Amino acid sequence: MTRKDLMAGNWKMNASHLEAIQMIQKLGYRLDPDDYERVDVVVCPPFTALRSVQTVIEADHLPIRLGAQNCHWEESGAFTGEISPLMLAKLAVSYVIVGHSERRMLFGEDDAVVGRKLRAVLGAGMTPILAVGETLDQREAGSTEDVIGGQLTAALTGLDATTVGGLVIAYEPVWAIGTGRTADADTAADAIGYLRSMVADGFGAEAAAGVRILYGGSVNPGNVTGLMAKRDIDGGLVGGASLDPDQFAAVVRYWV
Predict the structure, then answer these.
(1) 5-252 to CATH, choices 3.20.20.70, 1.20.58.1610, 3.40.50.1580, 3.40.1190.20
(2) Cα 55 to Cα 53: distance, rounded to the nearest angstrom
(3) How far, in Å, CA of 76 to CA of 83, rounded?
(4) Which of 48, 160, 171, 241 could form a disulfide with 220 if both were Cys (CB 3.0 to 4.6 A apart)?
(5) How far apart are CA 198 and CA 52, in angstroms?
(6) Catalytic residues
(7) pLDDT per residue over 61-92, tens digit each?
(8) Are 245 and 27 in contact (CB under 8 A)?
(9) How does pLDDT run across 150-161, given as a tens digit for each residue?
(10) Contact at 8 Å (CB) between 86 and 93?
(11) How far is CA 7 from CA 124, 172, 254, in A?
């Protein structure tokens, strides 16, 4: 099975709705049909910019998918400040990041919460981008596989093979997020290969062949080519570089 590459830009808490309009327009100018044939391009603006970005994508007929950075697990209710998956689906959101290390570490989201969110995203007809990753202390202790394997198992337990084969998983070593440090291509490929082997063991070869596994952690135009040369790496979850349309376009067009 041939897996189409996916590059997702996580804008985090950056860009007003007006800035987001400019960013998505500039990105649209810099990409051409051949790029979209080869790579699925996703942008994940902050909630306040989702509608503005959606409007530009639709008006300009851009083949860019809209993603969200987070959601609650309930469809509605007394959850002040939260956004439900159904609200996102009504904005034509296709992807939702769940389990990002910043959500886990700064906002106390444990594996149980991540699992509930993942199922809620699926229930609303969207695709989760499940983020897993270890801290520097965990890596130095030799616990990388235990940590990311545990996060993956907790999130996917109870799902069927077809569902798992359609997911997106992002390996994001915590020590490489926003630090300028990047796991070298071999290190990233080893971790991603391990995750794919876990999917194969738990859900079968077809699911393992279908699931797309991205690398995240200071991905930029200078390192993306080496990362993408690895067979098991299917794209990137891109942070800082995605805020600059020129840089993000260069990441999308990593083979040029």
Answers:
(1) 3.20.20.70
(2) 5
(3) 8
(4) 241
(5) 39
(6) 100, 172
(7) 999 999 999 999 999 999 999 999 999 999 99
(8) yes
(9) 999 999 999 999
(10) no
(11) 22, 14, 10
